[in-house]
Amino acid sequence: MIKKENLDKTSAWPFVEAKKMLRERKSIIEKKGKITLQTGYGPSGLPHIGTFGEVARTSMLVNALKHLTDLPTEIITFSDDMDGLRKVPDNVPNKETLEKNLHKPLTQVPDPFNKYDSFGEHNNEKLKSFLDSFNFKYDFKSSTKLYKSGFFNPTLEIILENYEEIMNIILPTLGKERQKTYSPFLPICPDTHHVLEIPVKEINKEKSEIVFDNNGKDLASSILDGHCKLQWKVDWAMRWYALDVDFEMYGKDLIESAILSSKIIKLIGKKNPSGFAYELFLDEKGEKISKSKGNGITIEQWLDYASPESLSLYMYQNPKRAKKLYNEIVPKAVDEYLDFIEKAKTQDELKLLMNPVWHVHNGKVPKEKMIMTFSMLLNLVETSNANNKELLWKFVKRYKENIFEKEHPIFDDLVGYAIKYFNDIIKTKKKYKTPNQKEKKALEVLIKTLDGCSDKMSPEEIQTLIYSAGKDNGYSENLRDWFKLIYEVVFGDENGPRMGFFISFFGVKETKDLIINRIK
Question: Which of 100, 217, 449, 455 could form a disulfide with 469 if both were Cys (CB 3.0 to 4.6 A apart)?
């Protein structure tokens, strides 16, 4: 049980947002007797890492709520699968099939993978599958099912009743040409099954019916039972209203939409949810990650190279700062994860609440003693030429006595991740430096220095001797260049491990042989 004074003091963002939401919606939540949080997903493309981030962060907020209130919580993961397919994604097969079915609701577009009844269902199942793999607790909702089942009907009637006022909210935000054709309601064409964006001619509130101008022909449509869907900003407000949503986070590109949706839900009689705008995810070039482009690192790729917990940690940190997501950031994220686990072992309760791994592990931080960093392990994969877990473990055990795989499950997983990451990402990009005569002479002095070392020396003692070798051979003014030389020659990179620790682990003789082979 966490002390109340520490819950009051902590500034960890899940607690800050949870307390804010409990304040803003106190009377509403008490009346309902539960707390509802929503995450949204547009299944126009395969689920991407940003979708995971939204569910992961919302789950962290739920964890914080459990320490602040006894009220039950639920996360609704809502799929906007009745939306029309606007363009063909870049990362799917059978694109011609999708091309023929543009503008149809995603649940009426054939599955290009030929696995499910529709593209929308395929992407929904992919979403549920990867959320399940992370053991997230959520309640999946399909837009198509809620529209067609009539669940949304009462709220749709309220939207129609307030049609003119809603138009007054939306129209000033649109250009003059768009104002002429805009309607909050989008009919599903009975002939083409397209989601139509066409102007309204007549409204019959008693019959819950709208007559649209479909290229000069009248199209009469009921707004109920899935015959119409709502434009995005009105649809979002309608979901909040119908599902009694208390909290939703969203990307900063949706801030304007959230403002308009908040005005609409207030107009139709309810308070808007507590919101949290997070920064966007970017690829290596700094471009926004897109479902249809498939740019940036995928969830599957991250999980090939690192643990789910390391990905959750990356999502926890600095949610209001833009994050680049590409392969090369994985080792740093893993090492930060390991470092936070180590720090947690000596932290008091208040500091522990600020430690990201407390939130990643729902308050149950692993106790495992760390053997080495992921970056160091990647260097060992290279220098030992180990190509499977068993071989790399044997190598580790040569220098670390009395360690066993079953006592180090996190590190055991790291061993497998390191081999795959090195072979897939690092190996192809290695550029080993060929030292010039001056640099070669300095490295030969380093080899002689290592002649005076033994495996029984401490990493600090070895590190001191390496410093001295650099200072005595032209690097006294800039030792960073000395270590950069070693790294570029030995590891094919500008950066590398702390050499004293590496040598004490890898072995003095083995390190000497490695340097000799690199400068031949």
Answer: 449
pLDDT tens, residue by residue, 363-389: 999 999 989 999 989 988 988 878 899
- Looking at residue 291, its pLDDT comes to 53
Q: Give all strands of the β-sheet with 35-41 in edge-to-edge order.
A: 139-142, 73-79, 35-41, 247-251, 274-278
Q: What is the 3-state secondary structure (H, E, C) of 157-173?
A: HHHHHCHHHHHHHHHHH
Task: Report the run of H or E that residue 211 belongs to, with start and end.
Answer: strand 209-214
The CA dihedral of 339, 345, 351, 354, to the nearest 10 degrees, is 40
Which residue, 232, 228, 193, is CA-closest to 210?
228
User: Which residues on adjacent β-strands are paired with residue 499?
Assistant: none
Give the tokens for residue 39: 């995450």
Q: Give the C-alpha separation, 449 to 457, whole Å.
A: 13
Q: Compute the radius of gyration of the chain from its Cα atoms.
A: 29
What is the structure's pLDDT at 328?
87
Alpha-carbon span 25 to 19, nearest angstrom:
10
Across 4-143, the runs of DSSP E, i.e. the strands, are 35-41, 73-79, 139-142
**Nearest residue to 434 via CA among 509, 383, 485:** 485
Phi-psi category of residue 437: left, alpha or beta, with phi > 0 → left and psi -120 to 50 → alpha: alpha
Least Cα distance to 504 among 386, 373, 400, 403 occurs for: 400
Determine the Cα–Cα distance for residues 477 and 479; give it in Å rounded to an integer: 7
51 contacts 127 by C-beta, under 8 angstroms: yes
* pLDDT (0 to 100) of residue 1: 86
What's the rounded Cα separation, in Å, for the pair 35 and 74?
6
**Separation between Cα atoms, residue 422 and residue 376, nearest integer Å:** 12
Q: Quick check: 288 and 49 in contact, CB under 8 A?
A: no
Q: Are strands 73-79 and 35-41 parallel, antiparallel or unpaired?
A: parallel
d(C-alpha 30, C-alpha 434), whole Å: 70
Total length of the chain: 520
Q: What is d(CA 89, CA 360) in angstroms, rounded to the nearest whole number?
A: 32
Under 8 Å between Cβ of 279 and 321: yes
24-81 confidence digits (pLDDT tens):
999 999 999 999 999 999 888 777 777 888 999 999 999 999 999 999 999 999 999 9
**Where are the strands (E) in 268-309, listed by range?**
274-278, 281-282
The residues, any chain, with a CB within 8 Å of residue 331's CB and separated by 6 or more, are 374, 375, 378, 421
pLDDT in tens, 218-240: 999 999 999 999 999 999 999 99
Single out the residue of 36, 19, 504, 20 nearest to residue 270, CA to CA.
36
In sequence order, which residues have a C-beta less than 8 Å from that of residue 379 and are 6 or more positions away? 491, 496, 497, 502
Which segments of 452-507 does DSSP mark as H helices, in order?
A: 459-470, 479-490, 499-506
Angle, CA 286 vertex, CA 284 and CA 258 arms, to 5°: 130
